[in-house]
Every structure is written in structure tokens, then in C-alpha cells.
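Risk register update: the risk of archive-format incompatibility is retired. Evidence:
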Amino acid sequence: MRVFLNRCRRRLMRLLGFRMLFGEAGAPHSRIAPSTCIEGEAHLQLADHVFIGQFNFIDASAGLVIEEGVQITNFCSIVTHSTHDALRINGRRFATQGGEPPGYLKAPVRLGAYSFVGPHSLIEPGSSLGKGAILCAYSQLRGAAPDFAIMAGQPARQVGDTRRRDAELLGRHPELREAYAAWAGAPR
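Archived output:
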């Protein structure tokens, strides 16, 4: 029932404007923009303190876990199934055969705690973004990105480690070390 009401709420808000909405069932501090389309919402596990910006497409039909503190910017696509290979290989047969045809890809996606998804990014079925990781703008994540990785490109490759950046900031603000260590472990 809550899923249905949230879906209706977002549709209504799309009609009224593009204001950010606060609070989801079980995640009262999370924010999802009304222009974000979520398919298969019943299979979405959304933690608290998540931000999902404007004009995203999120397919959770095969299972999507978004852990605490994740930020998904704007114009991103997260898909848990893909039919383009199956359609190309099977042609017209794709529409008439039952079940999942050869080439059909369906797998869950996980976004680790306090990870960041840059604008215009694509996350493919079966992918995972490690905790504290960054997926740079215009990147295509295919497979697993390790914890604290900075990922860039199409397909995305590791180009750095967020702990180096974090260590610099923690050096300037040592009062934040305890909060950081609570989710990330001791800084390098």
C-alpha cells in the first residue's frame, strides 16, 4: 500500500512541479525527486539518508539495494534487466516466445553506503558500486567496483581511491574522524 501511495505522490508532484520530496517509507531522511521514474519499486531496498536527483530512470524489477547515504545525481539510469541482446538475437520471435529468451539479462544491483553516482551515468544489471565509491559523470558501470574506488569511463575503470581525498579533508577537520571511521573504518 505504501509503495502505491508513494508512486501516486510522485506522479502528483510531477504535475505540480519539480520540488524535492522528503521521506520515504522506512527512510524518512531520504529524498527522491518527483521527476525520477522508479520501475519495480516493490523490489527496491532503500536505506535512509539517500538523495536521488532529477530525471533519473531506476529499474528495480530484479532487485536494487541502495544503502545509507548514497547520492544519485541527475539524468542517471540504473537497470536490473536488459533485453537489447535478446531482441536483436531473437528478432520477431522475442515477442512471441514465452519465458526469458537467450540474451535476456536480469540481475540485481547494489549501491554501497555513501557512494556517489555522477550525472548521466549508467549502471548495468548485476553491477555493484562499493561503499564510499564514486562513479564519475558519463560513466557506464558494468560489474563490480571495489569499496572507495573512483570509477570513470565507458565501461568504467578504477582511476583513483576516495580514501586519499578523504584523508586530506580529515587532516583539515580531525573532529570528523570518528564519524568517518564509524562507517568507513580507520582512514589510511
